[in-house]
Amino acid sequence: SCYSFEQLCINYANENLQQFFVQHIFKLEQEEYTREGINWQNMNFIDNQEVLDLIGVKSINIMALIDEESKFPKGTDRTMLNKVNRTHGGHKDYIKPKSDQENSFGLNHFAGIVEYDIYGFLEKNRDSFSADLRQLIHISGNSFLKGLFADDLSERSQDSKKKGLTLS
């Protein structure tokens, strides 16, 4: 079965946790053993840095392409998939759809291959800051919180002025 944008985000977080584990348990420990001259047997492990780079680390990663396509007024899930296919179609951890009619792609995660249905990717990525949360921060007396979300609050304020609304 195919999974959604949310699952891609969850799997990306899991990939990061796996890499953190690999980095600290295997890579750094083995380097330390070597430095200290400890006799040990090399342990094989899966290094998932390449799939992390593909999803969200390298400059033209999948998440960056989703973000970019989300900003185009005429961007669609299909145009996003076409862009991802063109950019990453040759990557060993990216599985292109079998035909141009398919609305999915696959990724070879450390835990195995996962297929993602592109339906709703752009809309979910565009999901804006909730009006309720924005209002709560606006009425909050916490200046640190207001500072964190100053851009969101000023953006909302500009939108409200255009529509003749107020935030208070």
TrEMBL record:
One of its GO terms (cellular component) is myosin complex. This is Myosin motor domain-containing protein. Belongs to the TRAFAC class myosin-kinesin ATPase superfamily. Myosin family. The keyword S-adenosyl-L-methionine does not apply. Residues 1-168 form the Myosin motor domain. Gene3D superfamilies: 1.20.58.530. The keyword rRNA-binding does not apply. Keywords: Actin-binding, Motor protein, Myosin. It comes from Timema cristinae. GO terms for molecular function: actin binding; ATP binding; cytoskeletal motor activity.
